[in-house]
Amino acid sequence: MLHKTSSLLCILSINAMIILLHGHSNYESFNNNDNSKSKLSKLRDRAIDMENFSKNQHCSNKKILDTTPKSGDIFDFIIIGAGTAGSTTAARLSEISQNKILLIEAGSYENFFMDIPIFAPILTLDNNINWNYKTKPSNKYCRGMNGNVCLWPRGKVVGGSSATNFMLAARGGAEDYDRWADMGNEGWAYKDVLKYFKKLETMNIPELKSDTTYHGTDGPVHITYPLYRTPLSEVILEAGKEIGYPIVDYNGKNMIGFSHVQATIMNGTRMSSNSAYLHPIRNRKNFYMTLQSMVTKILIDNTKRAVGVEFTKDGQNISVTARKEVILCAGAIGSPQLLMLSGIGPEKHLIELGIKVFQNAPVGENLIDHLGYFGLQWITNASIGLTTSEVFNPFNPYMSEFFINRTGPWTTLGLAETLAYVNTKHPDKQSGLPDIELLFTGIQPINFIAPILINLKDPLSLWIKYGEYHSWSVLVGLLKPKSRGRITLLANNVNVKPKIVPNYLNDSDDVRTMIAGIRTALRIGETKVMQAFNSQLLNVTNMECDKYEYDSDAYWDCMIRIMSSTLFHPSGTCKMGPRGDPTAVVDSRLKVIGIEGLRVVDASIMPEIVSAPINLPVYMIGEKAADMIKEDWKY
Question: Alpha-carbon distance 121 to 545, whole Å?
């Protein structure tokens, strides 16, 4: 296992590969037989392809100049965080030429590995581009992970988590947003936000782009199907039909059903918020970005108005002023942390840490996340998928297919080829909101990497021994959790990561829904079309669960608490609600209640999490926020 892991990670390191293939002092004498020379020649050619791809993608003139402001510099709008929402908001506000915009990012530029779709699982393990958050240890969830801790990677890079995520493009259902509006958030019903989903989107799927009721064709974010599919992808759609589900455009009228995944990919490579929104504005004279800049505090004056930002860069403490607004886009962990450090949050908690309180507010409460169960895998007697060695073997053509033509398995998401949205409580109902998402893959690397990705205590005894079998797997995602967690500070110091308590499975209904989702996945494995390939479930049971009868509710309750982890969608910690709502941090204009000149624009404002991955909804939030800001300032 360790040998396989180190080999895979070596292949995924461009520096190691180029040194190995170009700098090996004994390259010519490495092996003198003709066959080996031919293989090494192919290997060298692939490294050259890789090197050229790197130069073409990230050594071009697309980067925005890193500017270091001076203390006392004045901007109209200061935006904290160059992730999905921050990049979107900054780009749209910079359309007004008289606005002087500063975008502050703690990380640095994207590297070229982030553009390669299949490397998505590896990116969450890269400490250089990751905030490395972890949950508080628990005996109720994440029990199969080292230290009973779930890893919560978030992108620390230009583009934020859109540069490191799995690129799934989904909006959620109309009812998600109608529920936001019903909670008192005027202007956030589906009829209000649909235009922003269309505005941000260029739909490149031919059979969907003609549906102009639901899709846009001229936005910065390109959406398409991945260019490669294993045979499993079509088989899963047939299995869905067999159990009564339609094939749907889940970003159209109805979500419930089966589909190939829609992805934020363009020409076979990832599209992050950096490439979508920032690259096109790199020559605007009114836009400035400072990198590797850690914001320590939002500056608030005695009238309770945000007047600027304090940050550190290259050992310097720098304070800059905002004429109009400070816009906080640091995400569902970073935004509440900065608000609390700046004196906005639970009064008692802040006083205990010696923080001057400007506004008592429920910052950090209402933490919501999608939980995923990783424990379902089937082996088959047919090659309907690809194994790890097949995908990453440098002697196979897949590497060259990608680097030369942007085609082949390396253009897949690394996690999902096909997905299904189902309502386990009303399985015959094919409208409304789903409660479970099923992600299917026949690309074996995710099965191989998953134990490492979710920090399992003992991956050796689980799936790894099946690493070279042809197989397929299902990830079961809980879409509408009732459980709520919280984020609090551990110190009055931005460099001390906050305490994250997600409280997964705290509500018993969440457990019941997850079990129903697992049983839906098992039904799919039992369909005639899947049994035609002799699909056999790997009944990998943690020893702790052996005492329960297999397939009983108690058995699955045990397994879920051991083998489930985050789907990387934290949200809700700066909840949007009407003024007067004691649970709200921002109002429906995303203004921080009780503080002038300060807004929060990111996933933290979601009053409830949507029934889908949250990247597209966060783009939408950024687009809508920019319009609201323009309206408020009479542009």
Answer: 28
